[in-house]
Amino acid sequence: MSGTERPSPTLSPSAQRVQDAITALGFSNRVFELEVPVRTAADAARAVGCEVGQIAKSLIFRTPSDRAVLVIASGANRVDEARIAESVGEPIGRADPDFVRERTGFAIGGIPPLGHSTALITFVDRDLSRWPVIWAAAGHPNALFELTPGELERMVGAPVVEVS
Asked: Which is it for the CA torsion 10, 98, 71, 78, positive or negative?
């Protein structure tokens, strides 16, 4: 973390929900909030002092049959929607903010990899396993948590695939 970013002593309600979900799964990872939002992978990487590829960005897609698909991608990667659609069995497209909030319980800009209000079809980017430590959003644009790729895989129980 850079010297200008300081974690807040208490968590916002949405970040606390993510912390509660982490704890309920038996993990000890700690959510923290910065004084400023980190809405992009580049912003998050700068705030914690890591490479953009170490940011696990959670992207929500929508299928024509109204299913929600979560792709947890390396911040350095762009998701190949056709590749993910093949795994899902139907096309996918970016979800609008209302759909994202309805399905995850969180607003775009702070979507975490876990703790969602409904079950999502989930995929984890294989490229995240290149790093010993990664960072993920924690329910709020200012909230993050540090974890290993193995912890992410165990937390979400999703297949690890090529996403780009």
From this structure: negative
Where is 71: in which H helix or E strand?
Answer: strand 68-74
> Which 3 state secondary structure label does DSSP give 58?
strand
Quick one: pLDDT at residue 9?
Answer: 60
33: left (phi over 0), alpha (psi -120 to 50) or beta: beta
Size of the chain, expressed as the number of residues it contains: 164
Coil/strand/helix, residue 110: coil
Q: Which of 125, 116, 111, 149 is nearest to 29 (CA)?
A: 149
Name the residue with tokens 């992207």: 59
Closest Cα partner for 75 from 28, 121, 38, 27?
38
pTM: 0.92
Amino acid at 103: R
Tens digit of each residue's pLDDT (9 = 90 or more) over 130-148:
999 999 999 999 999 999 9
2-17 tens-digit pLDDT: 444 444 468 999 999 9
Note the maximum CA span of the chain. 47
To which residue do tokens 């704890």 refer?
23
- Using only the alpha carbons of the chain, give its radius of gyration: 15
